[in-house]
Amino acid sequence: MESPALSALLPVVFLILTGLVAAKVDWIRPGAVKDLTNLVFYVLTPALLFRTMATVKLADLDFSPIVLYFVAVGLVFAGTMVVYGFTTLAAARALGHTFSNNIMIGIPLVGLAYGQEGLVTLLTLISVHALVLLGSATLVFELAQARQSSAQGKPQALGRTLWQAAKNSVIHPVPLPIIAGLLFAQTGWSIPLVVDKPMQLLGQALGPIALVLVGVTLAYSKLGSLIKPAVRIAAVKTVVHPILFLGVAWLFGLRGVPMAAMALAASLPVGANVYMFAQRYGVAQEEVTASIAISTGLCLFTVPVVLLVLQKLL
C-alpha cells in the first residue's frame, strides 16, 4: 500500500532535484536566480495569498486548535531569538524552525491521513498561517534590521524605528495581499472570473517554481560549514516543533483529528517562503536553502513515525 507520506513528499523532492539538475547543466544560470526570486516573491506569492484569503469568512472558522498551534510556534520562534540574539540571522532561523510547507505537502498528506475533517482544520490554519507568521516575521526582520543598522553607527529614534518597521511589515509583498484578501472576503463579493482564473494559475505556479528555485540555489551554494546549521534547522522543524505542539495540545486538552492534523502540520518540512525572506533580507540564503532540502528528505523518515504516534493517540 502506498504511504501517504511518500505520496506527498516525493513530488517535492523531485521538484528540488529538477532545479538542481537544471542549474548543473547550465539551463538556469546564477544571474537568473534573483529575477526568479522576484517573480516568486512579487508576482506569484501575492496572487496565491490574496486569492486564498478572499474566500475566508472568519466567523465560520473554529480557531481553538489554531491558537494552540501558534502557542507552540511562538515558543519555538521566541526560543530561537533568545538563543541566537535579536538579529536577521536569528529571525531567518526562527522562521525556518516554524514555517511549514502546508500547501504543497500538508494538504495532500492530511487529506490522505485524516480525510475531510482533518482538511477543514488544516485549511483553517492555512487561512491565517501566512498572515500571523509571515506578518510577525516581517515585523521582527524589520526591527532586527533597524537594530543592526543602529549598531553599525546608523542610529535613529526608537519611535521612528518602530513606525518604519510596522509600516514595512504591512506594505510588503506578503502581508499586504493577505490583509487585502481578508478585507475583500468580508464584503461577501466574489472575484470576477476574468480576474480569478489568472490569479488561480499564478498561485498554482508558486509552489513548483519556488521548489525548483530551491534546487537551483542549492546547486550554486557552497554548503560546506553550513550543513550543520541547516541540519539543526531541519531537526528543530521536523522533530522539536511537533513534539512541543503535542505537549501544548496535551496541556490544554486538545484531542482527536484536530490535534492530529495540527501535529502533522507542525512536523512538515521547512516551507519555500522562508527562502524568499532570506533572499529579500540578504541573510542565511544558502543555510535556509539547504535546510529546505534536508528537512524534506528527513521527513521521509520522521513523518511516518509521527503518523504512527498519532495513530496511537487517536
From TrEMBL:
<keyword id="KW-0472">Membrane</keyword>
<feature type="transmembrane region" description="Helical">
    <location>
        <begin position="259"/>
        <end position="278"/>
    </location>
</feature>
<keyword id="KW-1133">Transmembrane helix</keyword>
<dbReference type="InterPro" id="IPR038770">
    <property type="entry name" value="Na+/solute_symporter_sf"/>
</dbReference>
<feature type="transmembrane region" description="Helical">
    <location>
        <begin position="66"/>
        <end position="86"/>
    </location>
</feature>
<dbReference type="Pfam" id="PF03547">
    <property type="entry name" value="Mem_trans"/>
</dbReference>
<feature type="transmembrane region" description="Helical">
    <location>
        <begin position="170"/>
        <end position="189"/>
    </location>
</feature>
<feature type="transmembrane region" description="Helical">
    <location>
        <begin position="201"/>
        <end position="221"/>
    </location>
</feature>
<keyword id="KW-0813">Transport</keyword>
<protein>
    <submittedName>
        <fullName>AEC family transporter</fullName>
    </submittedName>
</protein>
<dbReference type="InterPro" id="IPR004776">
    <property type="entry name" value="Mem_transp_PIN-like"/>
</dbReference>
<keyword id="KW-0812">Transmembrane</keyword>
<feature type="transmembrane region" description="Helical">
    <location>
        <begin position="39"/>
        <end position="59"/>
    </location>
</feature>
<feature type="transmembrane region" description="Helical">
    <location>
        <begin position="233"/>
        <end position="253"/>
    </location>
</feature>
<keyword id="KW-1003">Cell membrane</keyword>
<feature type="transmembrane region" description="Helical">
    <location>
        <begin position="119"/>
        <end position="144"/>
    </location>
</feature>
<comment type="similarity">
    <text>Belongs to the auxin efflux carrier (TC 2.A.69) family.</text>
</comment>
<feature type="transmembrane region" description="Helical">
    <location>
        <begin position="290"/>
        <end position="310"/>
    </location>
</feature>
